[in-house]
Design brief:
Blueprint: E1 4-7, E2 26-30, E3 49-53, E4 61-65, E5 78-86, E6 91-99, E7 106-112, E8 120-126, E9 132-140, E10 149-157
């Protein structure tokens, strides 16, 4: 089916992230917050909200973890589409998969030091025979002014 469960961060109520306020290191803000880029969400709206790494944080990485998804089947793979912003000097953005039987997170997609400071979009497909969680991670190597990692508009297909 074409039903997508959307998390646009306009409020802190997101089905996929039931404890959005307890995801340390990420801050929910908009382009008018005075915290540097991005100055708008991926649609160019200065007032619309997204998540970015907090420039005040002590550690330079943050993870955004979904709730537990049920195993996928052949007809319904889990597709996750998201918009991301990675600063060109020192940003890295990763998507990981943690299966129920495993203690470690398996990295399934990664991008770092994008050439342009702009929003990009990517879709990942997940196939898992057991329950799993998806982890979105942002990292900054240096705390330079105007450098950040941000995420916006995460949508989940009904296979998730």
């Amino acid at each position: 089916g074409s039903f997508w469960n959307n998390c646009d961060f306009e409020t802190s109520l997101c089905e996929a992230f039931p404890e959005l306020d307890l995801q340390p290191g990420w801050i929910r803000r908009n382009g008018q917050s005075g915290m540097g880029p991005p100055y708008s969400d991926h649609n160019g709206n200065e007032r619309a909200y997204f998540l970015s790494l907090s420039s005040e944080m002590q550690s330079s990485s943050a993870a955004l973890r979904t709730n537990v998804f049920l195993p996928t089947d052949e007809e319904h793979l889990c597709q996750i589409r998201f918009h991301y912003w990675v600063s060109q000097m020192s940003g890295t953005f990763m998507v990981g998969l943690q299966k129920h039987s495993e203690d470690t997170v398996t990295n399934i997609w990664k991008v770092s030091r994008e050439l342009q400071n702009q929003w990009n979009v990517h879709t990942i497909t997940i196939n898992s025979t057991e329950k799993y969680e998806v982890i979105f991670s942002g990292m900054m190597e240096t705390q330079r002014q105007g450098e950040t990692v941000a995420i916006d508009d995460i949508t989940f297909s009904e296979g998730c």
